[in-house]
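Re: your question from the hallway

Yes, I did run it. Sequences:
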Amino acid sequence: MSDWTVILRSLSVRRFSTVTTVATVAVAVALMLVLVAMREAAKKAFERGAGDMHLMVSAEASPLASVLNGIFYANAPRRPIPWDRYERLSAEAPWAYAVPIQQGDSFEGHPVLATSEEFFTEFKPNPGEAWQLAEGRFFTDSFEVVLGAGVAKATGLRLGDRIALAHGYSADSKAGLRLPPEDDHDHAHDHDHDHDHDHAHDEGTPHVHDEFAYKVVGILKPTGGAHDRALITNLESTWIIHAHDRRVKEGETDTTADDLIDADRKITGVYLRLRTREGSNVPANLPMVFDALRKDTSITVAAPFDEIRKLDIIVGNVNRLFVVVAGAVILSSGIAIMLALYNSMEQRRRQIAVLRVLGASKGRIFNLVLTESVLIGLMGAAAGVLLAFVGAVFAAGIVKGRIGLVVDPALPARPVVAVVLATVALAAVAGIIPAIVGYRTSVARNLRPLG
Amino acid sequence: MADEPALRIDSLRFAYPGGWTLRLGALTLARGEQMLLAARSGAGKSTLLSLIAGLMDPHGGVIEVAGQKVHALHGAARDRFRGRHIGMIFQTFNLLHGFTALENVLAAPAFSGAGGVDASAAKGVLASLGIDRPGARVENLSVGQQQRVAVARAVACRPALVLADEPTASLDPENAANAMGMIQEACRASGSALLCVSHDPAMWERFARKEHL
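Structure:
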């Protein structure tokens, strides 16, 4: 019979206390790991989201709002940029690309990004990685839509499906329409003036552009960025459906690309990348171009990576607070271990006395109790790692659902090892007082009626 | 060491904090000898056993077990010596709950470091005392079986001396006689001397050597 037998039997005899103490430690460890993992994963996801762009231009009030809205779809941008300003911007610097984007519509809570074909051919969602299709093709015509991987998964839409978009978006909105198959209509993507549509809609309910059917032509492979939860279509489609609202008020019933006027051609942002030397990602003229663009007060220019870093600093303070709270929870779980063992010592005085009679030294008793404490910490830490993995998957789902950030729920190895080691060390410290009680247990007094 | 008596006490003195003092002039117990020490309650017999086992320190005198001055040893050395050379049987058995009968017996050699007592030997000792379920947890055994496990644990390491403290106090006369018979036989089989303290007059006739404290 080994010391391990004594320790395991001791834990087994106090099964309820052991399980609840291990559970307390596990929850504390899981909380800490999920917070650390989410912090790391969110940081990476934010960094991924900007793709390979160097700058982003919008008309938003601040560079941070520009990045959050224009790249991460936090809110629908409210201020437009006229198309002629975009055309001038395209010629202002030696751009590798200047991809215009227009946001503001949605489908069942998923944002729509209207853009040019260069979005797929030039902009890379992850540096060095071009867009890849899981199915179908990129759009080549108006009223064709390509689904981000997350949209396809969440909505179940397939190639050939027809949908109508809603104006405006929010995470809570489920507005949008799934239209009957193409065969039931006269036109593939034309207006259907025969079916009943009513522009008057309930207060607070997004207006559905149900006069215009979009056809799903492609589904993208996941990129890990925010675009995974977007539907991507071309600018002309978006301009037409918004121009149609204007024309309906003017008494018109039909709108095509020929009916567009300059005021209809608006965008909400531009993704910009400067030409770089081969092997270099940061062009030397970036600061100069950045400063030049900033002189135009009608636009807001943002360096996405700088904004993400600023956001990390802002959020980092809150994160640190969370980590401190999680640390306090782990500390309290250490106190729980100490209390559980300390309370058990009262019941175990006789057992300890018997072990001493059988030849166990005081030091050995001390080690037995301390090892028991460490074992509780180790079991709690192991259970906590498992719990954290489940929790990280759950939290990743929440983060994706609430703010659209696609985070990898994998637990980073270094924090896991650090938290497990810290928990075991804490358990060892927590076991010291009970171990001293065991060490000092009077044998003669606790062998009554012997004593 | 084998020629030394199992127990030798000389001029033992232990003073309680209240002023009462336990004194014992001389007492020797030969190897394999069995002796009953009769005493009324509060006479200090439990204190005497604790002193012999090295669980308490006397204020004067000498206690030798198997030729070793018990109180000349300190710390872990004294604990190991006790585990190897002194077996103890208690009125309430003091078995390790949550452990099997076999684990209770193996605990003695495991903690004292006494060699020659493996699982097979321990099972043999249990079988000789009528325990045929060595893998059963002791709390699932009958009171009688628990007492047999306690006796098996006391003699497993073939100690020079077995100390029995009121081992039959909670039993009816018939079972008390049987239990004492079992203890005496087990000690004879292991070659251990037996010092039994009891206030039960019925035990008086079972010992060839008996004294009052």
